[in-house]
């Protein structure tokens, strides 16, 4: 007696509810969803903002924001976070390292940690995944820093090669060594300063 009741009353209910769920869109009937979509399509700004939030998980930009306020926030963030890579050089300046100078490595570690912090703050403010945002900001910063370091290294090699081709005499060799020493120091400093611009 139990089996006929189950097959004729309970199973059709499960099949019907599954079929009904397929016809519904997030708990909304298909016809109602089409009405909502047609209504939202009349207002493109609302529709785009809704798509940004629901599909891309991006918060829309507020049109009322002041350009001066945005400029001040950007300037202050560059001043605060842009100085982090230089802190390693300021802190380790009075320390004498006899074998190996870890200042550049410390600067890299501080920069990566700062990028992770900025990415986490960005994720929190945009109400997206904090860890995912932190990882992508850090990855973008590392790629930008590596690219600037590579360009600086290649330019140093190019300058060394071209200068050595043009200056042959012995009197010019001494001045060339002085120039190269200064250029390498300038490029090394430029690499350090370029690290602060990876936060863009």
UniProtKB/TrEMBL annotation:
The alphabetical list of record keywords is:
Membrane, Transmembrane, Transmembrane helix
Q: Among the record's GO biological process terms, what is one? A: intracellular manganese ion homeostasis
Q: What family does the Swiss-Prot or TrEMBL record give for this protein?
A: Belongs to the CCC1 family.
InterPro entries found in the cross-reference section: Ccc1_fam (IPR008217)
UniProt GO molecular function = manganese ion transmembrane transporter activity
Q: What is this protein called?
A: Uncharacterized protein
Tell me what topology the record assigns in the membrane: Multi-pass membrane protein
Membrane as a keyword of this entry, yes or no, is: yes
One Gene Ontology CC term in the entry: endomembrane system
* Segments crossing the lipid bilayer: 78-97, 103-121, 133-156, 162-180
Localization, UniProt: Endomembrane system
Q: Which organism is it from?
A: Reticulomyxa filosa
